Amino acid sequence: MSGLGRRVLVGLLAGLAVIIALMVWSDARKLADALSTFELPLLAPVLALSLTGYAFRALKWQAYLARLDIRVERTRSILCFLSGMVMSITPGKVGEVLKSFLLRESDGVPIARTAPIVIAERTTDLIALLIMATWGAASLAYGGAVIIAGALLVAALIILLSWPSAGALAVRAVASVRFTAAIAPRLDEARVSMNRLMGLRLLLGTSALSLAAWGAEAVGTWLVLRAFPGTHASLGDATFVYAFATLAGALSMLPGGVLATEGSMILLLTSVLAVVPSEQVATAATLLVRFTTLWLGVLLGAGALWLFRRRYLGDGEGRGPRVDPGLPPDDLFGSNY
Fold this sequence. Notes:
Elements: H1 3-26, H2 28-36, H3 43-67, H4 74-84, H5 98-107, H6 111-114, H7 116-140, H8 144-162, H9 164-175, H10 184-197, H11 200-226, H12 235-252, H13 260-272, H14 279-313
Helix pairs in contact: 1-14, 2-14, 3-4, 3-11, 3-14, 4-5, 4-14, 7-8, 7-10, 7-11, 7-12, 8-12, 9-10, 11-12, 11-14, 12-13, 13-14
């Protein structure tokens, strides 16, 4: 089995283990009863909101590619982006560097040039989640440690990744060591890309797209909660629950944030906010939220990866740089920053 297959399998097994554990903990029969009360017609808008979130993230991916002057035919670029979602179940989503491997194979773009996009994506995701979670944490005086840890991580990432001297120093250190000197040129190429991706205007614009993406899923979480009789969660409650639980899962570095995200969400719904009638309803809502966000993305990613490999990598023909003349010359948020 390939390294990709092993990582996906580990994430799937971890997710399955958490689902089984939650079923046992909440009593499978009572959990089934709770799920049976879900208002099924609300599932369609929840799925639509998740797809809207993916669209915002695809725009962010396109903005990063444009900032690096990488021109890829739109359909292929979007399929590449969607393919990366199959790796959402890797710790910190670092497996999404799969997108860089795909672009190397289909368009001849060096991995070192595009891999920093994954870091930039995670940085702006953290910024958005912190914004969404901070208000609730402050008003409830809950979860301060998680918020502070996330804020410190974001601050450190922005300073280190946008500070040219820090990157240059790291490259020189790698080049000075005999056993790592060979990778110094690729590391330097990644450093140049990273510096370009951390410009202020692009950082603000992509953070706004991240906020829109996570916000759409937070509204979906609210609809899921509303679909269970006896719940009284406001949109603000749902936003805090979803953002805080997702942030906790991201900081845990567990595959897909499993266990940490589910556990945080159930705790917030039952004990901190007490907006659900029972633990079984909280568990049912949590499972549905995860199925319509994380696992929907993994499923779409698997389908997109199959299609990408079939259409663009199947026979090996037509590889090498391909330019889409329809793309604008500048990125969404300005090329001079």
